[in-house]
TrEMBL record, chains A, B:
Family annotation (Pfam families): DUF1636
InterPro entries the UniProt entry points to: DUF1636 (IPR012863), Thioredoxin-like_sf (IPR036249)
CDD domains (alphabetical): TRX_Fd_family
Protein name, per record: Metal-binding protein
């Protein structure tokens, strides 16, 4: 369970705001707030540029090692997103394969999974 | 350029059809047709179960090694999808980092990128 989990946050996300909106982008704000959140030790938080989920942002990715499923979650906001993502990341990081039982997933994650990608190595 | 590229096709996809529709699922048909398509030697075609992009299926994933971006594409059909995906996979497989210049991507790929995920290893 010590394998590193990456939590990637799309920092370029405008979350549908007009391109001339002032101030930091919602995705960057979400990353900033997540950096102050209580994340498990094996979760590594990283900002990335454009996850190409612009129509359903803000977006994050959870991935970790060749045995875990990768998940893309969307429709997050900088207000409620950090708590949801911190909880979901902790659940994910506590698994060996990334498959969190449905009822243990944050409700937002259940309804806003954009895509999932199988592990590089088949699990048994 | 010899690193293997994986082309994952969601075979459980119903592409919005009712659950009692008869016959093989659209995703399975797409995989079957792709297996007869002309794919580069370094592209490995695989069927997978549920990429969780059900609202925008049929879906495929292109990934390949730690230096390439991973892409999820959606809104494909079993009729036109195989040719589009075969072309897009060939373009992808010809790159080192998975980044195909915008104008060289199949038009469907430009408009139906569901998400992209950065390489495991940073590229320079």
């Amino acid at each position: 369970m010590t394998e590193i989990v990456e939590l990637l946050v799309c920092t370029t996300c405008r979350r549908g705001q007009p391109t001339d909106a002032e101030g930091p982008r919602p995705g960057a704000v979400m990353l900033d707030r997540l950096s102050a959140a209580n994340l498990p030790d094996n979760v590594e938080l990283k900002g990335v540029e454009c996850l190409s989920n612009c129509d359903s942002g803000c977006s994050v990715v959870l991935r970790g090692g060749p045995k875990r499923w990768t998940y893309v979650y969307g429709n997050l906001t900088e207000e409620t997103g950090p708590d949801i993502v911190a909880e979901g990341a902790a659940r994910y990081a506590a698994t060996a394969d990334g498959l969190v039982p449905w009822r243990e997933r944050p409700e937002h994650f259940r309804k806003n999974c954009i895509a999932r990608i199988p592990p590089l190595e088949a699990t048994e």
